[in-house]
Amino acid sequence: MEESRTSGHSSVRSVIFFLLKILLAGSIVYVLVSRQKEAVMECLRNFDYRYLLPAVLLYFFHMVVCGLRWRVLAGVLGVNLSRMEAVSLSMQGYFFSLVMPSAIGGDLVKIGVLSARAKPGTKIEGAFSILMDRIVGMIGMFLLLLAVTAPAIPILMKTQIPGLPLTTGMKYCGIAFIYGCTLAGLGASVAIFFHRFFRKLPVFGWLMDRADNVTHGLVSRVTDAADVYAKQPKILIWCIVVSIVLVHILVAGLFWILVAGCGADGATALSILAAVTIGNLIGMIPIFPAGVGGRDLVVITILVAGGMLSADAKTAQLLSTALMICCNLAAGIFFLIDPGRKKVDHAG
Q1: Is the N or the C terminus of the chain less surrounded, counting Cβ atoms within 10 Å?
Q2: 335 pLDDT higher than 50
């Protein structure tokens, strides 16, 4: 009874926190729009909606690429998925990441469905392949950030937030924050491949051994899976390159299409790439639901610093956010047509 009550309280807290995140995101978007409501509405009326089709197709293409990337990484551990199964489960992950009150809600659903289809003794490998797919995607984003941030510093030094004067020192601190998050993210992402080094350290080694005993060998199975990936550097590098080009840069290209649909001037390839990539970094902060709010503020601020009119930048970003939400909701159709009744074949 006590356990049930505790679980109920935890669920209530999760829902309340989720609603607060939605309120925060909605408040940020409202403030951004309300400052130039008429100008933004005019931009929306003048938008060439023929540009929406290629933008939507590119967004779905990047979702499919992520699904196929995961299929490759899962296959390394002997978890064999057909292309359709991998894409279907990934689409379901996108849908639940948007509607569930958790930053990793979509991944949890993928793990649950995949575990239900897995043969006994292969559930951990399937779950770890999902984690590795997330790690590979983040490594791609962090590497792109390292490449983009330096040449974008002159743009970043021009950023201004209405109502919040930014000093030169504050801007340098912001750039340092971007680099700090990027380097820390890269370090955390690759740490799993150096588990043998950490195991040699007295405290870490004892903690890992203790955790392994408590979880009946779970830690060992995870580190063994990491060793399997470490022996396939070509596959990892290829998946990282795919993430950089066909996921992160492609999403920036999608945004460029929306900017073109606005007929906006002043945007450059560098300013768009920097705005979208840094915006995605800020969007990872768990206080923003699916990145909405934080990403919007950052992208608009950088685009304006790069030379775009504020109303054009807001319109393009609002359309980008709306497109993301609609496509992720549309991905829920895969949950309806593939609710998990099929079985996945796994290599023995």
Answers
A1: N
A2: yes
Q: Give the angle subtended at the CA of 28 by the CAs of 279 and 171, to the nearest 5°.
A: 50
Phi (first) and psi of residue 5, to 5 degrees:
-65, -40
DSSP string covering 42-92, please? HHHHH--GGGHHHHHHHHHHHHHHHHHHHHHHHHHTT----HHHHHHHHHH
Cα dihedral sign for 9, 10, 12, 13? positive
C-alpha span between 148 and 127 (Å, rounded): 32
User: Letter for the amino acid at 97?
Assistant: S
Which of 74-88, 150-164, 208-222 is least confident?
Answer: 208-222
The β-bridge partners of 164 are 161
pTM of the model: 0.87
CA dist., res. 232 & res. 83, Å (int): 21
Per-residue tokens: 23? 């309120």
Q: Dihedral, CA atoms, 81, 84, 89, 95, nearest 10 degrees?
A: 160
Q: What is the mean pLDDT of residues 51-63?
A: 96
